[in-house]
Amino acid sequence: MKTSFLLSSAALLASVSACSMSGESPSPAASGGMPTAKATLLDATGASRGTAQIVQSAEGLKVSINATGLTPGVHAAHVHMTGACTAPDFASAGGHWNPTARQHGMQNPMGSHMGDMPNMTVGADGRGSLSYTIPGATLASGTTPLLDTDGAAVVVHADPDDYKSDPAGKAGGRIACGVVTPS
Fold first, then answer.
1. N or C: which end of the chain has fewer CB within 10 A?
2. What sign does the dihedral 38-50-8-144 (CA atoms) show?
3. What one-character DSSP code corresponds to residue 70?
4. What burial class does residue 183 get, using C-beta atoms within 10 Å of its C-beta: 0-12 exposed, 13-18 middle, 19+ buried?
5. At 101, is the pLDDT very low, low, confident or very high (cuts 50, 70, 90)?
């Protein structure tokens, strides 16, 4: 059975555009006036596997992931370039968010993608968390906003990222995905 968890690009763009046209940020509430976004991470069956919160800051985008129900171990987590999470493989999320056309890997001298983040360790209880700031990134403004016309997604992978192999760090299959929406 194939399940689709998809926010239409038009709906996402309309939401961001409405905020832009009214002069408002997508959500100033919980972030001291800075725009925010969120994603609910779902597995291939549609079960919740946690959340991601994204907050615009002067330094870039602060991404916080709180995962549940995952296999213990080390997992790659990335921001992907398309706001679509179609189960079971979540290939609809596309590749890593890479508006600056770099190679993959936080340790790659030619990298890295803006969507590259550190690995997340999941404990024996199936819980893991990650907090990382994507330097220079913006949520809905500038020349390379995360929430462009086709949106974005946060993806958790089955394996750790090796931080250097292009294009995806040998991170394995996509085990959870969440469409990023303004909050």
1. N
2. positive
3. P
4. middle
5. low
177: amino acid identity, one letter:
C
Query: What size, in residues, is the chain?
Result: 183
* Contact present, 36 and 30 (Cβ < 8 Å): yes
CA distances from 144 to 53, 81, 108, 127, 148 (A): 19, 11, 21, 32, 8
Identify residue 42 by its one-letter amino acid code.
L
pTM above 0.90, yes or no: no
Which residue type sits at 171?
Answer: A
Element (H, E) at 12: helix 9-22
Looking at residue 86, its amino acid is T
Place of tokens 């190679």: 103
Specify the residue for token string 């394995």. 172
